[in-house]
Amino acid sequence: MIHGTILGSITLVTWIVTVFSLTPSYGAYYYPQSILGPFLLIGSAYAILFALIGGINQVLSEKLWDIKCEQNIGNGMRDGAILLFVFNITFIPINIMAIAYSFSPWSGLNNIQVILILLVSVFVSVYAIGFLSEKIASFLYVDKDPETPPDFSKHSYTCPHCNARYYYGSEIPNNGTITCQNCARDFPIN
Fold first, then answer.
1. In sequence order, what are the residues at sequence separation of 6 or more whose Cβ sits closer than 8 angstroms to the Cβ of residue 161?
2. Looking at residue 38, what is its pLDDT?
3. pLDDT tens column, 138-148
4. Domain residues of the chain, as ranges?
5. What is the pTM of this model?
6. At what angle do helices 2-21 and 111-141 cross, to 10 degrees?
């Protein structure tokens, strides 16, 4: 829930900034500048937002879930784009309600009901972002090859029955026998 609250609040701020940046400017006299300028500004802002959201997701995934992420700008932008897209998809009810409420007040709902619907939508969006951000981090980085321990050759043993070699660490039983991880037979350690 903490993961989703942090990322949800950041993406909510980006949503608010995006909505206000897309409002038309009526003071522009030249058509190409009035179209090209906002697109370049919004495009670069989205690249920065993707990198910011993805980078924060990588840091939170390492701190909260102990998921070792490969931290670079490409992975951060990919994660940020996915999370911002998912947040906007789950935030669609709020978008529709805001547009509908701005044209005419809803006659069937009073202000408290509208606020409750908005709060429930925000809670669902934040929960979805928290759940999916942890899943995105674990899904995208779980296929990495595990690192071999530094003492692998010192604490790995070959089973005489199946010739499989496994790492057993420094915790060896006192009787000097260990169970093979491949064939499940006991064998003595030399």
1. 180, 183, 185, 187
2. 61
3. 776 655 566 66
4. 2-141, 156-188
5. 0.54
6. 110
